[in-house]
Specification:
Blueprint (H helix, E strand, L loop, with lengths): L4 E6 L9 H16 L5 E6 L15 E8 L6 E6 L14 H12 L6 E7 L11 H19 L3 H5 L6
Parallel strand pairs: 1-2, 1-3, 3-5
Antiparallel strand pairs: 4-5
Length: 164
């Protein structure tokens, strides 16, 4: 059975604050288990989004993309997204909106309502650890994910503020 909500946690644990996505995936999985809601969510962790991730949107009621970003308001931003072209000439490293567009075009179906949780990152150097600032942002984002887990609906998520 396909879980109604798919969560994509994107990032490279070897690149400093880019580890925020995978770290939040672990935290979120633990929260879901504690709430007894793990069967309602599928958490997919990857280094970057690919065209193939459009397949993971099929049959879902809701999608969430988690990533770290530079220039993101601290501690994080949260917004609803729509399908949009923009994947260019390469098949690697798509934006979440492009994954939704691939779902629409290639699979011939509308993607589920989708949201992005982008956590502010400070340093993305290869071999670096998580910065102290990002560790604080991680805590705030993990708390926010707990709220998302308690009411997994596009209506509820759409009422939440864009910035913490």
């Amino acid at each position: 059975m396909t879980a109604p909500v798919v969560v994509f946690a994107v990032g490279n644990p070897s690149r400093g604050d880019d580890a925020l996505g995978p770290m939040l995936a672990d935290r979120f999985a633990a929260q879901l288990e504690k709430l007894g809601r793990e069967s309602e969510f599928e958490v997919i962790e990857d280094f970057q989004l690919q065209i193939e991730h459009a397949l993971d949107l099929q049959g879902r009621a809701l999608a969430l993309f988690i990533d770290a970003g530079t220039g993101t308001p601290a501690p994080y931003s949260f917004r609803r997204i729509s399908p949009a072209a923009g994947y260019g000439h390469t098949t690697h490293a798509l934006e979440p909106e492009a994954v939704l567009q691939v779902s629409r075009q290639a699979l011939g179906c509308e993607p589920p309502p989708a949201f992005v949780l982008c956590v502010r990152g400070e340093s993305f150097e290869l071999g670096a650890g998580l910065t102290p600032e990002a560790a604080g942002y991680l805590e705030a984002a993990a708390d926010f994910l707990g709220a998302l887990a308690r009411d997994p609906s596009a209506g509820a998520w759409g009422q939440l503020p864009e910035n913490a």
